[in-house]
Automatic annotation (TrEMBL):
First-tier enzyme category under EC: hydrolase
PANTHER family linked: D,D-DIPEPTIDE TRANSPORT SYSTEM PERMEASE PROTEIN DDPC-RELATED, OLIGOPEPTIDE TRANSPORT SYSTEM PERMEASE PROTEIN APPC
InterPro entries, sorted: ABC_transport_permease, BP-dependent_transpt_permease, MetI-like, MetI-like_sf, Nickel_NikC, OppC_N
The organism of origin for this protein: Priestia megaterium (strain DSM 319 / IMG 1521) (Bacillus megaterium)
UniProt name for this protein: Nickel import ABC transporter, permease subunit NikC
Residue ranges occupied by any ABC transmembrane type-1 domain in the UniProt entry: 75-264
Length: 277
């Protein structure tokens, strides 16, 4: 039984299945304003803690708000801002890592020692410290996550650039008189970009989990904005009487993270890209 399960998860069927699931989730997040059955922030205490019904398919929370509507709107924040964090961190890491690896010398030494110092601490602890400095709020959490996560991409790209510098086509470009900028633009960057798809699937789960964790701690998304981590935080007071208030957003987080991780693992096995942990 265990062997058959491993075979299924290692097969290439994982890639299209996970891609379809993620595609559906992104479509739902985009269309949330048009497909939600109710206003996700409308408070109506007359309908608080209602069981599932035709009007409220997943019931209501302690303030009478539709759970399904809040789950759908929460996907917009969790998925949308995770992509923003990934793209921003990746862009910073690509620029610094490529520049550091290609130039070398004391510039490379200083930048990499800084990255080593950041990576010596647990990323969540650093994010908590930065949010404590910036103050609570979604914008501050996004900024803190970007400032912490770019170092991992910089390290990875720097290693790729160091390897590419020794290739014959780079030497040929130098002999032909190409400038450093032209070599980086035409030869270095195109060769380090292909792993981006794999890196994205491997890291999106971390970004979503970090956003949800910050919101659960009350440092990220603030009420009444619907977000999965914040919904778990609000529902923890009703864990004995209405555990579904935590169950629904928790299952949503688990579904997205597991799907991204399965897709990332399948792609990393195919293309030989390692995750950061």
């Amino acid at each position: 039984m265990i062997t058959s399960i491993r075979t299924i998860f290692k097969s290439q069927k994982v890639i299209p299945i996970c891609s379809i699931i993620l595609g559906i989730l992104f479509i739902i997040a985009i269309l949330a304003p048009w497909i939600t059955p109710n206003d996700p922030i409308a408070v109506n205490l007359a309908y608080k803690l209602q069981p599932p019904s035709w009007d409220f398919p997943l019931g209501t929370d302690h303030l009478g708000r539709c759970n399904l509507s809040r789950i759908l709107y929460g996907a917009r924040i969790s998925l949308g801002f995770a992509i923003l964090i990934f793209i921003s961190s990746l862009a910073i890491g690509l620029i610094i890592g490529t520049f550091s690896g290609y130039k070398g010398g004391w510039i490379d030494h200083i930048l990499m020692r800084f990255c080593d110092g950041v990576m010596a601490f647990p990323s969540l602890i650093l994010v908590l410290g930065l949010v404590g400095i910036f103050g609570p709020g979604l914008s501050q959490v996004i900024l803190a996550l970007m400032l912490v996560q770019w170092v991992y991409y910089a390290r990875m790209f720097r290693g790729m650039v160091l390897s590419l510098k020794e290739q014959n086509f780079i030497s040929a470009a130098k002999i032909s008189g190409s400038s450093q900028w032209k070599i980086i633009k035409n030869h270095i960057i195109p060769n380090v970009l292909p792993p981006l798809v794999v890196m994205g699937t491997l890291e999106m789960g971390w970004a979503i989990m970090d956003i949800s964790a910050m919101s659960f701690l009350g440092l990220g998304v603030q009420s009444p904005t619907p977000e999965w981590g914040a919904m778990i935080h609000e529902g923890k007071s009703y864990i004995r009487t209405n555990p579904e208030l935590m169950l629904y957003p928790g299952l949503s987080i688990m579904l997205v993270i597991v799907t991204f991780n399965l897709l990332g693992e399948a792609l990393s096995e195919r293309y030989g890209v390692k995750r950061r942990f």
